[in-house]
Amino acid sequence: MRIARLSAVVLLVIALMGPVPVGAAPAAERHTVAYDRYSVTVDGRRVLVQGAEFHYFRLPSPDLWRDVLEKIRAGGFNTVSLYFDWAYHSPRPGVYDFTGVRDIDRLLGMIDDLGLYAVVRPGPYINAETTGGGFPAWLKLVPGLARTSAPGYTAAYTEWLSRVNPIIARHQVTRGGPVLLYNVENEYQVNTDAAYMQALQDKARADGIDVPIVTNVCCDAGSWASTWGSGPGAVQIPGVDDYPQSFDCANAETAWGPWGEGVTERVRTDGPGYAAEYQAGAIDLNDTGYERCRELTGPEYMRFFYKNNAIASGSTMFSYYMTFGGTNWGWLSQPNDVYTSYDYGAAITEGRQLTTKYDEFKRQGYFLAAARPLTKTDPAPGPVSGNPAVQAAARANPDTGTQFVLVRHTDRAASTDDASTLDWNTPDGRYRVPVTVTGRGAQILVAGLDLGGQRLVYSTSELMTHATIDGRDIAVLYGSGGDGSGGAGSRGDGDRGTAGETVLRYRERPRVRVVEGTVASSFDPATGDLRLAYRHDGLARVEITGGGRRPALLLLGTHETVASFWRMDTGRGPVLVRGAHLVRNASVHAETLRLRADAAAGGPIEIFAPAKRVTVNGTATPVRRTASGSLLGTLRGPDPVRLPELTGWRGHDEAPEARPDFDDSRWTVADRTTSLSPYPPVTQPVLYADEYGYHYGNVWYRGRFTATGAETAVKLNAITGRRGSYLVWLNGRYLGTAKGGVEADAEPNNPDPGPGTFAVPPGLLTPGQPAVLSVLVENMGHNDDWTVDDNRMRQPRGLVGAAIVTAGASVPVSWRIQGAGPADPVRGPLNNGGLYGERNGWSLPGSVDRRWPAIGALAGTAVPPGVSWYRTSFRLDLPRGHDVSVALNFDGPLPTGHRVMIFLNGWNLGLYGGGMGPQTRFVLPAGLLRDGAVNTLALAVTAREPSVLGPVNLVTLGVQRGGTAG
Ligand code: IPT
C-alpha cells in the first residue's frame, strides 16, 4: 500500500497550535487515503468507487444540485465525478468568481453532507463539449501553446489552479471532506509534454492536494502506459475512458459495441483498474434527439457492458459519463458537437427525471455496494459451461474465496436465448448449475458470500442487495433476462417466468415459510444445503428461521419489481423501502422512521426498518405490520399542477446597428494587423472578435467606406462554429445571410461554410457618399483543443475576411466592432453576447417593455429579417411541497429561417430553431424559475428571412410530491 498523504507535518502543526479556540468549528475528522492494485482505501477500508459524472456548471441552480446529488446517491452511487470549468469562472485574466451558481465550495460541502465522495477534475483542459474545452476564450490572446509547458500558458493555468486548488484542498477526505481523488488534465495521451503533466501534479501538491492523483486516458491505454506509466508525468492511478457504443444515436437499435467490448484496461499494475469515464449516454452528434441516445445506451447496454467490464477488468473504480447531463445554457457549449441540451441520454434526464436506466444503475450499484468482497478480486478459474455459446468468466476474492461469475454469450452479438449447465466449483462445494442467457443479457452470479448471518452457497438469481434489519437478514434477488425494456434482442417480457435457484447453507434443517409466491424448497442434511427453486415473477417472499442461524427473509423478484426498492443507510443501520418514486433520505429516531421521499402517484409504500412509526416528509403516515414483518402504508400522490398560459406578449424590433445613421463612435476600432491565431485572416485588418475582447455570443461589425458607384458585391467570410451564421446590411438594406464556418482550415475536399457573396443592389450607393456595411455575426461557443498541435482553441470567431467587390479601384473600409458588455456579475461571463437588446438590458426582468407594442399571442407573429425581441411575464403558483420540473415548449415545425434565444429572468437558457438542433423543449430550472412570484421571459429572435413565430407554452416534465424541500 502506498500512503498518499504525509500527515505527520500537518499533525505537528495542529499540535503546536494548541487547543481549538472556543466557538471555532470542531476539527473535521481526518482520514488516510491509500491504494493498492485492488482498490482505493480510506483508513484501511477498501472502497468500491461507483461514480456519477455530474457538471454543476450545467445546472445553474445550487438547490437543484442537492436534488440531483440525492438522486445520484439513492441510485447506488457513492461518488460524484466533477469537472471544473475554467471558462465558467473567469471572464478575464486575473478575475475569478466562485459565488452563486459558481460556488464550488458550497457544492463540495453539499457532497460531503450527503456522504458522497468526489473525484475532482479541474483540467486545466476538460473537453466535455464545453466552450474551448474549458479554456476561457481570453486564453486565445495569451502566447504559448496550450496544454504544454509554454511559459504564457503556464502562467495562465497557474492562475486558475491557484484559485481552484485551495478550495478543493480544504474539502479532501484527508481533511474530513469528500474529495477522494484529484484528476489532472484530460485524455492527454495523444499529446507528449511529460514536463507539463508533472508540473500540474507538482502544482497540486504545492497547493495542498494530498489525495491520490489520477488522470483519464482515452483510446489507447497501452501507449500511455509505455510513455507515461512511470517517470515524469506519470500519475498514481491512470484511468481509461471507454465509450463502446460510440455516438451514433440514429443507429440505436443496431449498435452493439462498435468501439469494441469496452473493457477498462489496467494501465499500471500497482494501482486499481479505473474506468475514469465509462459511457452512460451519448452526445447527439447527428441531431437525432436524446431519447435515441438513451436507447443507444439503455438498460440492455448497461447490463452487458458494465457487468462485463467489472468482471473482465476487475476494476473497482467507475465513473459513468454522464449520469446527469444538464444544460448548455448561455454560451457554454462547444457547438460542433452539441446544442443547448446536454441531456446526454443519461439515467437522470435534463429535466431531473428518473428513467429505466436509473433503475439499472440502482440494481447494479446496490449490488456493488453490498458485495463487499468485490473490492479485492483476482481472475479465477470459472465454472465450465456445458454450452460453448455461453461463457462463464470468474473473479474471486483471495481472502474470502467469494466468487463472482459473469455469465454471458460467448459471441457478444448473439441475441438468442441459450441455456447451459455450469460445472461450478464453488467455495462450498461442486455443483451443476443450470443457467440461461436471454437475448443480450449478462448476469453476475455469486458463490460463497456471507449475507449478514447467512451463507449464500450460490444463486442463479442476481443479488441486488442484502441488509440486516432488526436482527433479520434480508436479501433482494432477481432474475436474468432483463427488464423487458426493449432494444435489440431483448425479450419483451423481461425476466418474468425465468427459472431461478438459490442455495443457502445451514447447520440443521431450517424452517421455511413461503410468505408470497411459489417457491419449492429442499434440504440436504449431508451438505446442509437449503435449495430454493422458483420462477421469477412478481415478488416472492421466503422466510427462513432456525437452522442455526438468525432469521432471514429472501425477496425474489424480477428486474422490474426489485427496481422499486430503495436502500438507505441510517445511524441505526440500513432500511429498505419499496414503492416511493424516490427515497432521498432516511433516519431513525426512537421508534420512528423519518423518510424524505417523492411520490409521483399515490400508492402503497412498504418499509423494512427498525421502527414502528413512519413519517414521510414530516407528516405521520399510518402503517400496519405485514406478514413479512414490514410496515405498509399509503403515499399521497401529487396535487394537480396548473401552469399559466403565456399571453400578453410585447414586441420590439431591434438592430438599430443596421441603420446607416446609428452612432457607433464608442465602438472599438478594429485596427489589429496580427493575431496569435495560426489561422491567418483572409483580409486586413484582423476582425476576429476575440482580439477585441468580445468572446461570447453575437458581435456586430460596422464598416464605413466612401462609395464609388462601381461596387458590385460584398464578399464576407465568418467563422462561428457549427450552427452559427451571419446577416448583412448595406446602408440599412438587408442583403442576406450565410452560414458561418466551423473551422478556418477545413479540408479542401470538405469545404467549410463561411464565405458569402452579396450583390449590391443597383442605386443603393451614391458615388462620393459614405456607405455603411453592418454585419451581425452569430458566434457560437469556441472549439475545443483535444489534440494540442493543431491549436484548435485558437480558431477564430467572427469575421475573418471582408472586401468590397468593385469594377474600379479597391475600396478601403474602416471597421468598428461591438460585442458583449462586461460579464453579468450574477449570471457569469457566458450568459450574454452583444445584441443591442442584451447591451441595453432587454433580456433582464424589469419593466423595459412598458412602451413596447402589445402583440398578444406569439403564434402567428410575422418577424422581419434582423433581430426582434418579445417579452412577457407570468406568475407561477405551484403546489407547496412538490417538485415540478417545468420547460418552455415550442410547438409546430422546427423553424429554419429564424432562431430564438431564450431568457428566463435574465438567464440565457438556450437556442431554439434556426439549425440549432432538434430541441423543442427547454428546461427552466427551479430556482431561476421562481415559484409564487412573477417571472419574465424574453425571446430574442434572429430572423435570416421573413418568418412567422409558432406557439410557445409551459409544460411539466415531471411532478412529484416531495422534492428537496420535502
Ligand atoms: C471524452 C472526454 O474526455 C469527455 O470530456 C467528453 O468530451 C466525452 O468524451 C464525450 O462526451 S473523449 C472520448 C470519447 C474520445
Automatic annotation (TrEMBL):
GO terms (BP aspect): carbohydrate metabolic process
The keyword Metal-binding is annotated on this UniProt entry: no
Residue span, Beta-galactosidase domain: 373-565
Single GO MF annotation: beta-galactosidase activity
Catalyzed reaction equations: Hydrolysis of terminal non-reducing beta-D-galactose residues in beta-D-galactosides
Key words, A-Z: Glycoprotein, Glycosidase, Hydrolase, Signal
InterPro entries (UniProt xref): Betagal_dom2, Betagal_dom2_sf, BetaGal_dom3, BetaGal_dom3_sf, BetaGal_jelly_roll_dom, Galactose-bd-like_sf, GH, Gly_Hdrlase_35_cat
Pfam families: BetaGal_ABD2 (PF13364), BetaGal_dom2 (PF10435), BetaGal_dom3 (PF13363), Glyco_hydro_35 (PF01301)
Domain of life: Bacteria
EC number: 3.2.1.23
Keyword tRNA-binding (UniProt): no
Enzyme class: hydrolase
Signal peptide: 1-24
Entry's family note: Belongs to the glycosyl hydrolase 35 family.
Name of the protein described by the UniProt record: beta-galactosidase
